[in-house]
Design brief:
Elements (H helix, E strand, L loop, with lengths): L9 H12 L1 H11 L6 H4 L17 H9 L10 H18 L3 H18 L1
Helix pairs in contact: 5-6
Length: 119
């Protein structure tokens, strides 16, 4: 999350961000709105490990906590968005115009190679 330089109330915006990300608020949001926490302190809290009647009394959040803790990190390079755009553009052409999939793939790669030469 970020606060734009043009923000009229940056201190208040920062307080909102801190509130959104704090562990207790995220636990509350899970209980009230089913929003699964991203805060590691909240993920380690016993409060989120309650039995779920809908699932026959299972503690389903324990499965989600384990999954979150075992997600491998992914590196996104500096020019990721620029490379990705070639593939998005070609996928859209396949979807909207019926462009041949193999041709779209080759065109996306050609765009990436051309971009690489300019960097």
């Amino acid at each position: 999350m970020g606060i734009p330089a043009s923000c009229e109330h940056p201190e208040e915006a920062f307080e909102v961000i801190m509130w959104l990300q704090n562990a207790q608020n995220q636990i509350t949001q899970l209980e009230e709105n089913s929003l699964f926490p991203t805060n590691l302190e909240a993920l380690n809290s016993e409060e989120i490990l309650s039995e779920d009647e809908f699932f026959g009394g299972q503690v389903v959040n324990s499965l989600f906590v384990d999954a979150v803790k075992n997600i491998p990190s992914q590196y996104v390079g500096l020019n990721y968005a620029a490379y990705r755009q070639y593939f998005y553009d070609e996928l859209r052409l396949v979807q909207d115009t019926g462009k041949d999939v193999d041709e779209a793939w080759e065109d996306a790669l050609a765009g990436c190679y051309a971009l690489e030469e300019t960097l």
